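Troubleshooting log. The previous structure file for this entry was overwritten by mistake, so regenerating from the original sequence record. Sequence copied from the archived sheet and checked twice against the printout by T.R.
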Amino acid sequence: MSARSAAEPGISLAARTALRRALLRWYRRTARDLPWRRTRNPYRIWLSEILLQQTRVETVEPYYQRFIAALPTVAALAAAPLDRVLQLWSGLGYYTRARSLHRAARIIVEQHGGEFPRTAAAWQRLPGIGRYTAGAIASIAYGEPVPAVDGNVRRVLARLCNFTAPLDTQADQAAIWKQAERLLPRQSPGDFNQALMELGARVCTPRRPQCPDC
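Regenerated output below.
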């Protein structure tokens, strides 16, 4: 198949249906057992997504456990001094993430009575929450059928749709998100988003992808 731009149509309806079923079966059978995948608690899912930004999973796990033990709720996070949050974060780098996490917790507690947003659009109004993070939280915690396109998902979709690299224009990025929206099932969108991420992390890797396994 020849390469094409991301602006052109991607996966057919029949292929989307088959892919959804196969990918969800694979994910539910072989997914890594990560602590934030054992819950639908929006606080824990949000925390994990912020910790995972630009950081490897194996690095994040002990930080996640430490945060949950020290600050188990959004109210506890909002009440904690910033110095305490930065202390728990120490060693992860990109400290702006920790400051934004703290500011967002205070907004949730002080302006929304401790109630979390229930949609991706509402999550994006909080500090430190972009389109990917909002989609991940809303789909996993609340089952909202919204895509979550991170680097792994972008790579999977680019290869699946035979898009031309490097996909660095706004039009290309918009087309990738459009393909993600078309592919996303109405049922179990959180599992499906995580399945795409898992496929990119473990099989459809940047170098030496395991295409026969896929």
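The chain has a mean pLDDT of 93. Archived copy saved in two places this time.
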